[in-house]
Design brief:
By secondary structure, this protein is mainly alpha-helical.
Length: 226
């Protein structure tokens, strides 16, 4: 009668020294010993066996980071809304000044808040920065003022006071989803949870006649922003 051949031992995983995982051997050894002791203490005393070897197999999981131009970070925008902006521009249903003011404000919002800290003069100066260098056409503060009033009427932004503009964070938001939901909850409280108030009633599910607005005639209301 021949004895059973010895069980084949699995090769032990050896960390790559270049990967920065050197030093895990001791930890794996401790875990193996603890597992062996736990098995020994709970096993049937008549057939007690000690765990001799534990093999851990792992691989590095590196998450790629965004590579963005500039040092201002990046924002997340609704794909539906970015296409809507293009459609409105082609159809001449939004003025160039309104589009430029909105994009400038959207790109300047503080992370996690949806708020941009700009006075009308700062928006004017910011938009004219390249125009001054290239000798191009400049935007006036009065034009910026009219554009902001129009954007408020579309519920794309809301004025909070002097130098504070609240973005509609369902359209354009700088921050993660947790921060966005916190902002939306705060806005709902501020507007008595009115389903038609800012920033609601905007999106692809809105009936088409609600989108057929005369964007060339901005409404004349809204508090001053500076």
């Amino acid at each position: 009668m021949t004895s059973d051949p010895p069980a084949r031992r699995r090769p032990r995983a050896v960390p790559d020294a270049a990967s920065g995982d050197v030093g895990f051997d001791d930890l794996l050894q401790v875990l193996g010993e603890q597992l062996g002791e736990a098995t020994q203490s709970t096993a049937d005393p008549r057939g007690r066996r000690k765990l001799k070897n534990v093999t851990f197999e792992y691989e590095p999981d590196h998450t790629a980071v965004h590579d963005m131009a500039g040092d201002a970070g990046y924002s997340l925008a609704s794909n539906w809304f970015t296409q809507l902006l293009a459609q409105l521009a082609v159809a001449n249903s939004i003025t160039k000044s309104q589009l430029c003011v909105f994009l400038y404000v959207a790109g300047g919002q503080q992370r996690g808040t949806g708020i941009a800290q700009y006075t009308q003069q700062e928006i004017t100066d910011g938009l004219n920065k390249l125009a001054a260098q290239k000798g191009g056409k400049r935007i006036t503060r009065s034009t910026v003022n009219r554009a902001i009033k129009a954007l408020v009427g579309y519920k794309w932004v809301e004025q909070l006071g002097n130098g504070l503009i609240q973005m509609n964070v369902r359209l354009w938001f700088h921050g993660n989803s947790t921060a966005q939901h916190a902002v939306l909850e705060n806005l709902a409280d501020q507007h008595d949870r009115d389903p038609e108030a800012f920033p609601n009633a905007i999106g692809p599910d809105v009936h088409q006649d609600q989108l057929d607005l005369d964007f060339t005639q901005p409404p004349h209301y809204g508090r001053r922003t500076g």
